[in-house]
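question for whoever is on the cluster today: can someone run the full assembly for these? four chains, 1136 residues total. i dont have access anymore since they changed the login thing
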Amino acid sequence: MDRTIRLLISCPDKVGIVAAVSDFIAQRGGWMTEANYHADRDTGQFFMRSEILAQSLSVDSEQFRADFAVLADGFDMQWQFSDSDVRKKVVLMASHASHCLADILHRWHSGELECDIVGVVANHENLRSMVEWHKIPYHFINFKDREKAEANAEVEATLATMAPDVVVLARYMQIIPASLCQQYHGRMINIHHSFLPSFVGANPYQKAFDRGVKLVGATCHYVTEQLDEGPILDQDVIRVSHRDSKEDMVRLGKDVEQQVLARGLRAHLQDRIVVQGNKTVIFD
Amino acid sequence: MDRTIRLLISCPDKVGIVAAVSDFIAQRGGWMTEANYHADRDTGQFFMRSEILAQSLSVDSEQFRADFAVLADGFDMQWQFSDSDVRKKVVLMASHASHCLADILHRWHSGELECDIVGVVANHENLRSMVEWHKIPYHFINFKDREKAEANAEVEATLATMAPDVVVLARYMQIIPASLCQQYHGRMINIHHSFLPSFVGANPYQKAFDRGVKLVGATCHYVTEQLDEGPILDQDVIRVSHRDSKEDMVRLGKDVEQQVLARGLRAHLQDRIVVQGNKTVIFD
Amino acid sequence: MDRTIRLLISCPDKVGIVAAVSDFIAQRGGWMTEANYHADRDTGQFFMRSEILAQSLSVDSEQFRADFAVLADGFDMQWQFSDSDVRKKVVLMASHASHCLADILHRWHSGELECDIVGVVANHENLRSMVEWHKIPYHFINFKDREKAEANAEVEATLATMAPDVVVLARYMQIIPASLCQQYHGRMINIHHSFLPSFVGANPYQKAFDRGVKLVGATCHYVTEQLDEGPILDQDVIRVSHRDSKEDMVRLGKDVEQQVLARGLRAHLQDRIVVQGNKTVIFD
Amino acid sequence: MDRTIRLLISCPDKVGIVAAVSDFIAQRGGWMTEANYHADRDTGQFFMRSEILAQSLSVDSEQFRADFAVLADGFDMQWQFSDSDVRKKVVLMASHASHCLADILHRWHSGELECDIVGVVANHENLRSMVEWHKIPYHFINFKDREKAEANAEVEATLATMAPDVVVLARYMQIIPASLCQQYHGRMINIHHSFLPSFVGANPYQKAFDRGVKLVGATCHYVTEQLDEGPILDQDVIRVSHRDSKEDMVRLGKDVEQQVLARGLRAHLQDRIVVQGNKTVIFD
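^ ran it for u. tokens below:
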């Protein structure tokens, strides 16, 4: 993969934004490998993403950012600059179920995910061997026989030592305390095992079974303080029928969970997502 | 299509049901073209559907039914006997939107649906010409400038004159009064323009847009007194993105609504559905 | 719908294209409602589409085009300028099957397709009444009891009187002669009832049934002189099983054909497609 | 999981088969947990599968089989009796790519697949550590620097030592010699990385990219001597666009390959498949 610079921009829409930004890039020799734009009619907000071949630029990153800050001010932009060579540090959090964790680990192992997985935090011991085979540190946090607050404080401290850019809840079944939600706002990704907003909270497959739905789904979203209410990155579903027990739904849903989480995470790692209010713009 | 007899059975599960029923059919020369079974582990209920070539039977329908009633008693069966030659009478109900109505009319016109469409009831006049082109009576019920109850009474009376076996709400946007729900219990089919239980009630596409979901869907269900809570016949979804306005979602959703309604209706017309509690067993 | 100007561009990729074009548009006050870019790594070709609010432009269309021609020359661009107010004239061609024709007619009737359907050409009489109900002229061309060449000459002459911008083969089952393929190159759209390149030519559902596939599909493509080999606009599939007869596959496939054709046609009508070699770039 | 007996039957269709078989089972106290039937109109062949709770049977397996053989003779049945407690021995064959292998290993590890994986045969060394972590023997067969026939003889001998019931080609990129095809006829399962019959043979993603298809797929099939022509167990597809390079197609296709192979293998392990000619009846 060639090294690229990614520029994510959000600002009030007006005539001339694309012209100004693309002129800025062209003047510095920037060869764009991808360019995406979105104008939101309802809010009047404009979004763009440019991916630029790093070696084509006549200025270094620092200069580019300093220069761009001036332009950005003129358009009242919120913007994010990132470099594909600066790999994001990811921490995975898991509970007892292995499928999402195993899937992300394999994708990472086979080079499909551009990131460094710096650790796994889990409230069970059963996945240690799988994680350590990948040469990734495994941090067990005991949630039994003590106060949740105490365990959560240990989670927070453990995360802090790894300083992750992204935290992925790979079927981590504990409620995230508000302080962690705030600390990792916009960079903590959860997979919920239902097609949200259906079946918020615990036991969504049981609820789906009881309601007699004909599709079960999964939703990847950013974690906010409101349980299962954060901005959605991706969703998908799979067909079920009266022949499927709740256990069948759980099994069929696993594949959907894995894929939806992997797609959401991939988009985040490639800086393809802008959050606007409680919604996402995803440039793919 | 060959004439067939369809037997739908539901009873407490025990050893020997299939043997008894299939022996009963075989003794009367019955050639089965389809046979489906389902044992529900949770409730201990057993379901079966047999489709039998009519010409293969050595007894007439009346005799078959009389004989079968004896067997059915022994197993505490609820059962339904139907004859593919006795086409169900269907009334469609519509409002202003044409897509579901046009789709059903065309499927019927091209021979895809085994039924007689005996009338359309609508609270707008705009679809009259389309319906009458199909040589189907169009009953306009005025819901403006008078009490809902009065209009609903006219709906009920109009339906009564047609004595439908099935009523299809093809995006009929009025609430169905409880009396009608009861009268057509298990044979009034609605299409709701969301993936239930998400977005119950009015304006589901607006709600879906506001929530930022990545799929929009539709649900075909039997109408009960609880709005959008009846047993689900079918559901499906289509992918949307940040590029899609609410109007795009409405447009994309139309195709899903049409197909889901058509599949649900087809299954009902072919006597493939057993309702168990608030869920459906659909033999396809 | 607001009136918009659409600019479709293809040229060798180099630094500064987006800057030049967006600067050109911004200087004329152009408010972009959509902007899409694609750089093809394999061929080094660059593609872009801009949709501009017509009322925002400070120059008229003629001036815009004249000015743009100068810029385009400098970049060796192939380009297409279109105006959403200039509705494309569409002719539909059909045979005996009604489903794709009925679907397009209904979408057009309900305002979903931006075009004028100026006529239907068919080699059977059975669809006349449906077409004429939509107040669209129906041209029956007799293919029986005479030479194909003679019938095809009548087709060509009939098309010529209507001067269509787009010709849609809505399950028109005749081979298109080479002269017509050339005349309507890049604007004659066919729906083939298989997932190409599987099952080219006649009877694809029979072939699919015989091969025992678990999905059947449909392909919308531009017509070229090589049968079923033209650039693909869209494809989709639906699940089938051993329970489905060839007739079931035909029925299930109809829905896929309708949707795939409608999506392809819609993209074409909105000037979203650039053909590159035997492939399409579709900006959606 | 309760222990069950599975009976798979295929015979010429006639009146009374279901009655005879279900009576046979009921007389021995058999509680059926699943029952499936299929009558093929084209060939006049009848298929059925019964799954019976082992503990409900009043006779042991040997007696059941001996008794059933008599009944089967009378109907000219081909039949297969299997016991869920007799886990099938599976050998996986792989090449360099890890995704299908890793997916099957994880499903097996987490208890989703009822089988014993007794070994992996591969023509590269790179997957050894992953396999051995699962405590499964890894057999490397060198295909370089010697005759294919010699290497294939070693494959055959290695397989023979493990006496597998099922061989799974999990993206094993070598051609299987005719002798092995025959030896494992109906129990050697391959995953082909295209939607067959499109793109038979090598490099299907390159072919798909070159053709400009809008969906890429995968096909799970039994291996026969005709390359990629065997009976299809399952297929699926995923949407691609002009934005996707060949490498993107490879990546997107991996998920489809994994799922299609896993579904096909699962159906085979649960004795849900009857092969008829070059097609499969799959009772799910």
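summary bc i know u wont read the tokens: The radius of gyration of chain A is 21 Å. Residues 246-269 of chain A form the longest helix (24 residues).
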